[in-house]
Amino acid sequence: MESTILLLSYLIGSITFIIGLKMLSHPETARKGNLVAAAGMTLAIFATIFLWENPNTHERLHNYGWIFGGLIIGTIVGTMAAKKVQMTSMPEMVSLFNGMGGACAMLISLIEYRKPEAKSMGEMIVVVLGMLIGTVSFAGSMVAWGKLNGRIKDRTIPGAQAINFLLFGGMIVLAIMVIGGFTSNPYLFYGILALAAAYGILFVMPIGGADMPVVISLLNSFTGCAAAFGGFLYDNPVMLTGGILVGSAGTILTILMCKAMNRSLKNVLIGSFGGQKAGTAAGDKEQGAYKEISLNDTAVLMAYAQKVMIIPGYGLAVAQAQHACHELEKVLEEKGVEVSYGIHPVAGRMPGHMNVLLAEADVPYEKLLEMEDANDQMASENVVLILGANDVVNPAAKDDPASPIFGMPILEVEKAEHVIVNKRSMKPGYAGIENELFFRPKTSMLFGDAKKVLQSLVAELKQV
Amino acid sequence: MDQFTSIFTDAASYRLITIVILSIFLGIEVISRVPSVLHTPLMSGANAIHGVVIIGAIIVMGQAGADDYLALMLGFLAVVLGTLNVVGGFVVTDRMLEMFSKKKKTK
């Protein structure tokens, strides 16, 4: 009877994961979908604690003190961390949690390996692969996390690809030796662990920070696979469906993200961004002169415009300027100016970053234009104000085949009458590429922190 | 070879393989038409779902011998990390999506 209830709970859990994912992919139902999946997860967890029994010995679980202790600590720390994190740091938080899942899978395999009972070949395969993938995911996620919060700088390691290839080969050889039972030396198993950790680090290290979302999504699907191996090990259907669903959905999501940037996954992983070539490609080119514009002039220009489009980028997120931005929009609307936002799908550090940020400041949904619509309207805009966006408006993506971002769809701001670019300095954007837009005749530069600039702009506008 | 063919002759493993293959297609099907706005929350939600690995951690922890301190410590750590993944993942996703629902009210 009890095992029936357990299996029923697992079935419900699996179904909620499927429905949850489905609902998460539609804007209206997304939030509910998340809660549905969370409820299913809670059910599966508690059913396991109270109803699971060992299929051979029919023993129930014990060590409740340890289990609940762990659950309570994890819940408190996890909730606090997730509640406190700022909107701009969400991506790195996701990466951190993903790493925790990978580490969890790694530990499970480690403990199972240490158990004295003999294991069949099938069990050995899932133990070794679960640990291997979990470790790669953990190590990689930690590097991605460090890169996003700036603790780890982009750097190219000479011969990184050759080293990675060797590490990968070494892991395969060791894994075959351990799985095939050619040796029972436990150090070989720990050797796989060490190689997997090194591989995870070196695999993410050379990839540019701008591509981290794609990498996190990929590591996410890795962790899904690691969880699925756990499902094999315990013949556990909910771990299996949950893990595989995330594994396959995560892979598709990774590809979709790449598509949004018009690049292939291979291209991202080999890392042309942050690579050596990126800097020189435009650096050789002669830099023209740029012109600056004062706050006052900007205010006048915008106040007498009919249509203004704001293009937000990572600079807006860093400066936490979304509220100031909404303020500007309201002041302009009061003056009869039509304001819209042009949202590039990969503006910021993650797809959808800008939508989330602007939604936080209560910017109405209808004002956010997707890239195609924004480009259609561009010719009728009088002023385009670019707030801390760079690569997504870089004309090199259209007309410089040598550029690493060539082929990426961009917001074609040059169709508008005036382009005002707000940046902190002339430093190139995250991809490390010069932006010729800044030197074009239509463009004026407005230097400063996005929030301060916007606040002063609002003050100026009120006086115009 | 026998061990390999047993995957197909053994009812339990055959069932698992079927689940895996169907889940792969389901995963692809379920999210193939997601707007780019939702990429980040969806990734975060999926991140929380693979926290289901916590169940493995609980099973391992609950079977550890009372005097096997290394297994107890590692298992405890696994439960804590797994819970972080699940709880943190769902809460972060909810926070992201909260901002989407806010704008509906202003509509």
- The run of helices and strands of chain B is HHHHH
Portion of residues within helices of chain B: over 70%
The percentage helix of chain A is 55-70%
**Tally of domains of chain A:** 2
Most extensive interface between two protein chains, with residue counts: A-B, 120 and 86 residues
How are the SSEs ordered, and which strands pair?
The complex is a heterodimer of chains A (464) and B (107).
Chain A lengths: L1 H23 L5 H22 L12 H21 L5 H25 L6 H28 L11 H20 L6 H19 L7 H22 L3 H24 L4 H6 L5 H8 L11 H9 L3 E6 L1 H5 L3 H13 L3 E6 L9 H8 L7 E3 H7 L5 E5 L8 H4 L18 E6 L19 E5 L2 H14 L1
Chain B lengths: L1 H8 L1 H21 L7 H11 L4 H10 L5 H38 L1
Helix pairs in contact in B: 1-2, 3-5, 4-5
Give an overview in words:
The complex is a heterodimer of chains A (464) and B (107). By secondary structure, chain A is of the alpha/beta class. Chain A has helices spanning 2-24, 30-51, 64-84, 90-114, 121-148, 160-179, 186-204, 212-233, 237-260, 265-270, 276-283, 295-303, 314-318, 322-334, 353-360, 371-377, 396-399, 450-463; strands at 307-312, 338-343, 368-370, 383-387, 418-423, 443-447. Chain A starts with a helix and ends with a helix. Chain B has 107 residues and is mainly alpha-helical. Chain B is built from five helices and no strands. Chain B has helices spanning 2-9, 11-31, 39-49, 54-63, 69-106.
Keywords:
heterodimer; A: 464 residues; alpha/beta; Rossmann fold; 2 domains; six-stranded parallel beta sheet; 18 helices; 60% helix; elongated; B: 107 residues; mainly alpha; 5 helices; disordered C terminus
Give the gist of this structure.
The complex is a heterodimer of chains A (464) and B (107). By secondary structure, chain A is α/β, with parallel strands linked by helices.
